[in-house]
Amino acid sequence: MASENIYILGIESSCDDTAASVICNGHVLSNVIANQKIHEEYGGVVPELASRAHQQNIVPVVDQALKKAQITKEDIHAIAFTRGPGLMGSLLVGTSFAKSLAFGLNIPLIEVNHMQAHILAHFINEESYSKPPFPFLAMTISGGHTQIVKVSDYFDMEVIGETIDDAVGEAYDKSGKILGLGYPAGPEIDKRAQLGNPKAFKFTKPKIEGLNFSFSGLKTAILYFIQNETKNNPNFIEENINDICASIQYTIIGILIDKLKLAAKQTSIKHIAIGGGVSANSGIRQALKNGEQKFGWTTYVPKFEYTTDNAAMIAIVGYLKYLNKDFSKSEVTASARLKI
């Protein structure tokens, strides 16, 4: 694609992880993430604390990404950054830093849509992974988003289904809170679900027309179920934790796969890719694999490190935009509610 080596620095600061990555011609040279443990005490991300931590982390994280990639800032051809969607305070830190550095180095600045980046993470050059061919369906599932996107080209994407209330990651976290599990609860529920009976307890799936999702009713149903059961038996959660987690996970995955089946049928597209933090869930990965046998799908699941918020996915979008000379103006500002 490119004769010379093109180095792109990617910066991601949409939520509570400060991340920087260097990509050379689509290959990841470094992918550094600083997590913010402080939010665990509060059971969710505190925006004010997140933006303060980004300010502390961004310089060392970028410095480490450059060192790991064994290049200097003078080698960078362009800087890609997350413009949105996300928490405004967090986005502003990354945006301001990227703009200042690009200006100081006199190199192009490239804005990236965080949700597009979750999808385009599939185009990072990795020996062991095949890339989805166009058109394909992408399901992006995270703490803040649940969407089904028809992807016709790198930057030709159409959201054909999305949540009308809560995101799937939020459903996991709220369920975890009800059960007294830590934050984020998704990995813990996933772990326990593998030890439990997924059909032990039945939760009704919300009846939402078309390709849209809803998770708020399920959260309420889980809350009432736990309240009723613990009234009769105060040790109910403790005695049945694995079965409860397995049943919750079974219901959530059922909702996601039902909508994917419908989307594949309506669009006649059988190439299915997933992205976003919740795509690290083993149950969802298994359900997709089963879809290959059952429905003739070809599925694409990114490496774990490219599923949660990371800067390699921002850098790959930066690289693709760089090849198109699709640069941002210096007046560009962060946008908390940026759409695909």
Kindly list the characteristics that best describe this protein:
9 helices; 10 strands; alpha/beta; single chain; 340 residues
Helix content: 40-55%
Task: Examine the secondary-structure arrangement and name the CATH architecture of the largest domain.
Answer: 2-Layer Sandwich
Sheet-strand content, in percent, reads 15-25%
Sheet with the most strands: spatial strand order: 3-2-1-4-5
Taking the sheet with the most strands, its summary is: 5 strands, mixed
**Total strands:** 10
Count of runs of 4 or more consecutive helical residues: 9
Number of domains: 2
Separation, N- and C-terminal Cα atoms? 26 Å
Q: Could you give the order of the helices and strands?
A: EEEHEHEHEEEHHHHEHEH
Q: Can you give the mean pLDDT?
A: 93
- Structural class, by secondary structure, is alpha/beta
CATH topology of the largest domain: Nucleotidyltransferase, domain 5
Radius of gyration: 20 Å
CATH superfamily of the largest domain: ATPase, nucleotide binding domain
Q: Return the CATH class of the largest domain.
A: Alpha Beta
Describe what you observe in this structure:
The structure is a single chain. This protein has 340 residues and is an alpha/beta fold. The protein has two domains: 7-123 and 307-323, 2-Layer Sandwich (Nucleotidyltransferase, domain 5), CATH 3.30.420.40; 136-301, Nucleotidyltransferase, domain 5 (2-Layer Sandwich), CATH 3.30.420. It has helices at 47-69, 88-105, 114-120, 168-178, 186-193, 216-232, 236-267, 282-295, 312-323, and strands at 7-12, 18-24, 27-34, 78-84, 109-113, 136-141, 146-153, 156-162, 271-275, 298-300. A five-stranded mixed β-sheet has the order 3-2-1-4-5, sandwiched between helices. A five-stranded mixed β-sheet has the order 8-7-6-9-10, with helices on both faces. 48% of the residues are buried.
